[in-house]
Amino acid sequence: MRQLSPEDIELILNTADSLKEISQRDVKKVPTLRGKSIIHFFYEPSTRTRTSFEIAAKRLSADTLSISASTSSIVKGETLIDTAKNLEAMNPDLIIMRHSSSGAPHLLSKVISAGVVNAGDGINEHPTQALLDLYTIREKKGRIKGLKVVIIGDIAHSRVARSNIIGLRKMGAEVTVSGPPTMIPVDIEASLGVKVVYNPEMAIKDKDVIMVLRIQLERQSKVLFPSLREYSSFFGINSTIMKKAKKDAILMHPGPINRGVELSSEVADGSQSVILDQVANGVAIRMALLYLLIGGGH
What is the C-alpha to C-alpha distance for residues 231 and 227, in angstroms, rounded to an integer? Predict the structure, then answer.
């Protein structure tokens, strides 16, 4: 998201708007990327992002190939760069990459000529998630500029939070973050221009958008809170806390949800939740990116 200008973001969102209806047709396929080949190269587990990219590519008629780290030559000791160069020798048009190391897609883009899309790198960024979140906010609220957004949860380990903060601020939204002090980076106010409010009830007050994050236990090298039960009682979002937000506020979550921890089921499945809209919009956003990158649309 750091590389994108507000105009770039606007172009991607508008392109997604025009492509979204393809997914509503009886025949959900157009020939736009026929003859193009895309490799999905995922070093980390993923359900939504990987499936979303694969469906997006297939709806545009691209040929796709999926590789995971456990089935690649990396388990035999091959380096990331050697693996990438071998894949490049097969002449793909685009490589979609998720990696546990921050900066891995950027490294890849420097050593191969095929385009590289970052599908999440370590705790750095998850740009396509931020774009689909921006798209969902614009779709539901009619605008992004001037909205008050709060992001609650494990901010320090969340690439989704980082990408969203950058994207939301570029598009003119006001961003507040909330969570346990152990999960809020100390310099976040200065480095990313957000407001920090540790008390979730205060943080949620009068907000237009509530974005709740998953507790990323797999990225934490040390214990940052006493127990999941304690986290839930202090920072879990339930119907009582939601009453502090605006009546027409929307509730978002990038998934997967830990029900009963960061969100109660009542709220996750409630009328203010747009979580499943985010999943549907993810396909439209990723179709837009594929089209703009290799469809001759940009």
Answer: 6
For residue 3 the two structure tokens come to 């590389």
| Angle at the Cα of 45 from the Cα atoms of 43 and 49, rounded to 5 degrees | 95
In DSSP notation, 21-74 reads GGGGSSS---STTTT-EEEEEESS--SHHHHHHHHHHHHTT-EEEEEEGGGSGG
Q: Which residues contact 66 (CB under 8 A, 6 or more apart)?
A: 39, 40, 42, 50, 54
pLDDT number for residue 227: 80
Cis peptide before 181 (omega within 30 of 0): no
Contact 120/230 with Cβ under 8 angstroms? no
Beta carbons within 8 Å of 82's beta carbon, 6+ residues apart = none
pTM of the model: 0.93
Half-sphere exposure (Cβ direction) of 215: Cα atoms closer than 13 Å:
25
The 10 Å CB-count burial string (b at 16+, else e) for 95-104 is bbbbbeeeeb
Q: Are 253 and 263 in contact (CB under 8 A)?
A: yes
Mind listing the pLDDT tens digit for each residue in 241-291? 999 999 999 999 999 998 999 999 999 999 999 999 999 999 999 999 999
Q: How many CB atoms lie within 10 A of CB 17?
A: 14
* Stretch (H or E) spanning 160: helix 159-170
pLDDT tens profile 83-117: 889 889 999 999 999 999 999 999 999 999 999 99
SS3 letters for 80-121? Answer: HHHHHHHHHCCCCCEEEEEECCCCHHHHHHHHCCCEEEEEEE
What residues contact residue 280 under an 8 Å CB cut-off, 6+ apart? 23
Mention every residue, 6+ apart, whose C-beta is less than 8 A from residue 28: 22, 59
Helix or strand holding residue 249 (H, E): none
- Return the pLDDT at 75: 65
Categorise residue 142: left if φ over 0, alpha if ψ from -120 to 50, beta otherwise: left
